[in-house]
Fold this protein.
Amino acid sequence: MPLTAREQIEDRCKHFTGRQHDRCAIEILYTDVEVKGEGIPCIMNRRFTAGYCVNREISTPDEVEAEIKAIDEDGQLFSKAQYRVIKHIKETQETSGEVECPACGGRLKYFRAEVNKHIHAKCSCGFGWHE
């Protein structure tokens, strides 16, 4: 069974920046702590451990709660924005336009790709997404 978001946050080192990067937030190379064929200690979980890093630091319960809350809030903002954009597209039949940004109240500009119907949206506050 996959780990929940909470379990992943609880088991992930605070310094982990993702495997798309070559090093963590405190400049430790992932290859320096990786166990070949098994993984890295940065994302150990209840079923798997690989390697060791003296700098591994896990979140406190309060920090986990704060991150879960932020994820929930971001999801709610995205849902509101997506709803507004889709509603505007249906009402106007336009493939681009602006709606109120749920993050700041400013203008969220969007366009919908003709080829795949994916929506791309961005506000000057930094909120936005692309599908």
Remarks:
- Strands lie at 96-100, 107-112, 119-123, 128-130.
